[in-house]
UniProtKB/TrEMBL annotation:
SUPFAM superfamilies tied to this protein: HAD-like
UniProt binding sites for substrate: 8-10, 24, 43-48, 51, 75, 113-117, 144
Biological processes annotated in GO: carbohydrate metabolic process
Highest taxon, organism lineage: Bacteria
GO molecular function: beta-phosphoglucomutase activity; magnesium ion binding; sugar-phosphatase activity
Lineage, opening ranks: Bacteria, Bacillati, Bacillota, Bacilli, Bacillales
Cofactor needs: Mg(2+)
Keyword vocabulary terms for this entry: Magnesium, Metal-binding
One matching Pfam family: Hydrolase
The protein, known as: Beta-phosphoglucomutase
UniProt cofactor note: Binds 2 magnesium ions per subunit.
């Protein structure tokens, strides 16, 4: 029986990838190269610093460390302009209902996200109080596929990995859950997330299953 559930944020609870995309594209436009939605797939689940490196690689641009830091900050400022506008309507289908169902069953809930803006976003969409623990990019040093974020989540919930389940939309996150020894449900496409123990289209499918 499952005692704890660990949720990724972007792609599982909200679709912030579209705002990350617009913010990175804004930087790419300034540099004068095209940054496509398919390029953006490579940034999912990846840290801000690593995302910038991928964007620079796509544009063939070389920056020193100081400039990289400045550009990462500029990107985040732009991204914040979008997420400041978020509200409950941006929750993905079934996300809130499923969290509520789990709570009714006494399952403890943690967030396991690479984002440094995770707590802010949970507040904006009005579900912060549904989480017993929030592990995000401000708390971990090793990014997914390292298992750190999910192991820290289990620890904060006071549960063993084998009593938990992870919900993830990104390959790196699924690899992280597997490395942590946690049962993992992939949210998205079977052909991309085949490593997961189970793949579903969205949390609404679990709400319907009851
Ligand atoms: P930030 P997740 C990840 O969120 C995003 O998928 C990824 O595209 C982003 O670069 C990363 O958060 C860091 O976000 O710039 O807000 O710190 O899927 O791990 O919830
Ligand atoms: Mg994600």
């Amino acid at each position: 029986k499952i005692k704890g559930a660990l949720f990724d944020l972007d792609g599982v609870i909200v679709d912030t990838a579209k705002y990350h995309y617009l913010a990175w594209k804004w930087l790419a436009d300034q540099w004068g190269f095209e940054f496509t939605e398919s390029d953006n797939e490579r940034l999912k689940g990846v840290s801000r610093t690593r995302s910038l490196e991928i964007v620079l690689e796509i544009g063939g641009i070389v920056l020193d460390e100081e400039e990289k830091q400045r550009k990462a900050e500029e990107k985040n400022e732009r991204y914040l302009q979008y997420i400041r506008q978020m509200d409950e309507s941006e929750l993905l289908p079934g996300a809130k209902q499923y969290l509520l169902q789990l709570r009714e069953r006494g399952v403890r809930i943690a967030l396991g996200s690479a984002s440094k803006n995770a707590s802010f976003i949970l507040g904006k969409v009005g579900i912060a109080e549904l989480f017993d623990a929030v592990i995000d990019g401000t708390k971990v040093s090793k990014a997914k596929p390292d298992p750190e974020v999910f192991l820290a989540g289990c620890r904060e919930l006071g549960l063993d990995p084998e009593d938990c389940v992870v919900f993830e939309d990104a390959e790196a996150g699924i690899a992280a859950a597997i490395a942590a020894g946690i049962y993992v449900v992939g949210i998205g496409r079977q052909d991309i997330l085949g490593e997961a123990d189970l793949v579903i289209g969205g949390l609404e499918e679990l709400v319907a299953a009851g």
